[in-house]
Amino acid sequence: MKFFYRHSVRGKTMLRNCQRIFLRIYSPKSLIHSHYSNMSSALVILPSGAEEIEFVGTVDLLRRAGITVTVGGLDGKDPVKCSRDVLIVPDVDLKDVAKSQFDAIVLPGGLGAAKSMSESSLTGEILKNQEKEGKLIAAICASPAMVFKAHEIGQNKKITCYPSFKDDLGSKYTFVDEKVVQDGQLITSQGPSTVFDFALKVIEHLCGKDKSDTVAKQILYK
Q1: What angle do CA 79, 80, 81 make, to 5 degrees?
Q2: For the chain, which end, N or C, has fewer CB atoms within 10 Å of the first or last residue's CB respectively?
Q3: Among 71, 43, 68, 62, residue whose Cα is nearest residue 205
Q4: CA 203, CA 200: separation in Å to the nearest integer?
Q5: In this model, does residue 16 exceed pLDDT 80?
Q6: What are the DSSP calls for 8-76, one per residue?
Q7: Positions marked active-site
Q8: Please, which pLDDT band fits residue 195 given cuts at 50, 70 and 90?
Q9: CA quadruple 93, 96, 99, 100: dihedral sign
Q10: Which residues does 10 contact at the CB level (< 8 Å), separation at least 6?
Q11: How far apart are the first and last CA of the chain?
């Protein structure tokens, strides 16, 4: 049968048609377009003292959604000790990607981490450029209050944060006591137990609600 279809007129015609279809669907160009055209990217900054649940939970869910996540170590590429002594290895030194373009910049919480990012001029530069470009900035726990305030990010926006920091926000921010708050290109959340809501909201913003709902279903969250 294979020999017949290969050498008969009818077989040659069918073979050519199949080849055209195959090339149209599976050519490298079409594969690149279909797979990468809608891919989003996120830079997650990793300082010493980051809250493990918030950091790992966010990175995990974003990657489940197909978002290209780069973990940038605030102090270089060496392993970072988080708030409960968990060691995490960054993908890159943050300095090496400071000028790169990302669809989202994400800040984990943790008091030590938020303090380090607040005092980091490099973090401030990255956040200000992201805000200037009108792209997403997402932060959780202490970071919305401490880091945003230090670098004057998202002023006059509605945000949430770890509740004990709300009085530190000052008059330039409006505190909203909800698990996750989005005001334009700013997404904020309150703490470790709200990390799923936080990450899913980032996914929804970057990839759409269908993708966010799919990821939530996969992890049995909804």
Answers
A1: 120
A2: N
A3: 62
A4: 5
A5: no
A6: SHHHHHHHHHHHHHHHHHHSHHHHHHHHHTT--EEEEEE-TT--HHHHHHHHHHHHHTT-EEEEEETT-
A7: 141
A8: very high
A9: negative
A10: none
A11: 51
